[in-house]
Design brief:
With 299 residues, this protein is mainly alpha-helical. The protein has 13 helices and three strands; from the N terminus they run ααααααβββααααααα. It is globular.
Length: 299
């Protein structure tokens, strides 16, 4: 509650701590004061190695579990439940730094075109209008899929200065402008498709969600991922993830000359360090342009 963590994060920590308690109990340790740094280090090793009941965890999952354990012991010391913190010196393993995968502007356009018809197609299926609006919104704002599916109507402003208020990780709010393509796709969906989807709901009151499923309820994260995956298959783009359009948004903004601090704000990153990973991609792009454009660089 104090840290404003997402429900999914809290559930992951709960699962990690249950496993931690189970491992310690199997060793006869049931009190916080009995735990030593060696116990914590051994738990980390067991996560990476796996056992008869659990597969070995990836570095990122093991790191999350160690963070949960460190939080538990730090809390215990702060609350006077234990005299020492055995996890203080145990650092979570560092996952390999992976570059986000962005696709080209041409591939994005192909993906959007296969997602659904444009806003001028008056005979379009309502769900296809929704799909096109969803993907245009994701690429036009850099929003996470969870932010799009959590979006409510009163957080959209489609007037002369169109913006959207997004609620990101930790419940942090940010305001992001929207371009003409995303606005037109959203307007077509909201006027010609969403009302038809809303009437399918069996609830007494209609959902406030912007993006609805076929039953009139809020489109889930899994449902949105299915929309993206289906469009990617039709566009013949094999490596598309829920974050692909977000990564492409950031990369194309930086390629176009946007300041990294502006991109940081648009993405809702707490630290510019997180955003800087995209500059590694754009450096490669700069090399390509230089090599193909400079008279003394041509092979």
């Amino acid at each position: 509650m104090e840290r404003g963590l997402a429900a999914s994060t809290v559930e992951s920590y709960r699962r990690d701590l249950r496993r931690y308690a189970s491992v310690l109990a199997s060793q006869g340790k049931t009190r916080l004061g009995e735990i030593t740094p060696a116990d914590v280090a051994g738990f980390l090793a067991s996560l990476r190695e796996g056992d008869a009941d659990h597969a070995a965890l990836a570095v990122s999952s093991a790191a999350r579990a160690v963070i949960a354990v460190r939080g538990l012991h730090a809390f215990a010391v702060a609350q006077g439940l234990a005299a020492t913190d055995p996890a203080r010196e145990i650092q979570p393993p560092s996952p390999p730094r992976r570059l986000p995968k962005a696709i080209t502007v041409g591939d994005v356009e192909r993906l959007l075109d296969t997602a659904g018809p444009g806003p001028d197609d008056l005979s379009a299926d309502p769900r296809l209008l929704r799909d096109r609006a969803l993907l245009e919104f994701l690429y036009g704002t850099g929003a996470r899929i969870s932010e799009a599916t959590g979006l409510d109507l009163d957080e959209l402003q489609l007037g002369a200065d169109p913006v959207v208020r997004l609620i990101g990780k930790g419940g942090k709010h940010r305001v992001v402008p929207m371009g003409r393509y995303a606005v037109r796709a959203l307007e077509a969906y909201l006027v010609r498709a969403r009302p038809g989807l809303a009437v399918a709901s069996r609830r007494a009151s209609s959902s406030p969600a912007v993006f609805l499923n076929a039953r009139g309820g809020r489109l889930t994260r899994q449902g949105a991922w299915g929309v993206l995956h289906a469009a990617a298959v039709r566009a013949r783009l094999p490596e598309v993830s829920p974050h692909t359009l977000r990564h492409s948004f950031a990369t194309h903004m930086l390629d176009g000359g946007a300041d990294i601090r502006v991109v940081q704000e648009l993405l809702g990153h707490a630290s510019v360090t997180t955003t800087q990973v995209y500059t590694l991609i754009t450096v490669d792009r700069l090399r390509e342009v230089y090599a193909s454009s400079h008279p003394r660089a041509l092979a």
